[in-house]
């Protein structure tokens, strides 16, 4: 049986912190689907198609990773893909409380799908998509925070 995990998020944009979790997860699971969810409570800089493109390009060297988008409940999506697991990254203790609430609800919706938390590499513990967008908006370098394709896309958005 293939061990399939979903790595969900808004990825607006994908950062090296996200990629750290995806790369490490790809060593544990047979296949990972990076699923772009459109969070209605956020105003994204990139539309879903742009985010899909940036993620596909950023993960093209990881053979057991595919990219998809979804609207609706994560657990419904995971079940439709026959996933066994959800991978979530944690940057700091403050993330844990929020993630625990989500995981508890997901477990209530489908107790057959496990959630695995991975601590982000320390060098990315401060990193968020929001921070990257804020820094890029003021034309500061984000080259050590995001892949080159994302850096170029950010520059174009803020020109």
Automatic annotation (TrEMBL):
The gene is coaD. SUPFAM superfamilies: Nucleotidylyl transferase. This is Phosphopantetheine adenylyltransferase. GO terms for molecular function: pantetheine-phosphate adenylyltransferase activity. It catalyses: (R)-4'-phosphopantetheine + ATP + H(+) = 3'-dephospho-CoA + diphosphate. PANTHER family: PHOSPHOPANTETHEINE ADENYLYLTRANSFERASE. It is an enzyme of class 2 (transferase). InterPro entries: Cyt_trans-like (IPR004821), PPAT (IPR001980), Rossmann-like_a/b/a_fold (IPR014729). Belongs to the bacterial CoaD family. Pathway: Cofactor biosynthesis; coenzyme A biosynthesis; CoA from (R)-pantothenate: step 4/5. Residues 6-134 form the Cytidyltransferase-like domain. Reversibly transfers an adenylyl group from ATP to 4'-phosphopantetheine, yielding dephospho-CoA (dPCoA) and pyrophosphate. Its cofactor is Mg(2+). It is found in: Cytoplasm. Its EC number is 2.7.7.3. The record marks 18 as: Transition state stabilizer. Substrate binds at residues 10, 42, 74, 88. It comes from the Bacteria. Pfam families: CTP_transf_like (PF01467). The keyword Iron does not apply. Keywords: ATP-binding, Coenzyme A biosynthesis, Cytoplasm, Magnesium, Nucleotide-binding, Nucleotidyltransferase, Transferase.
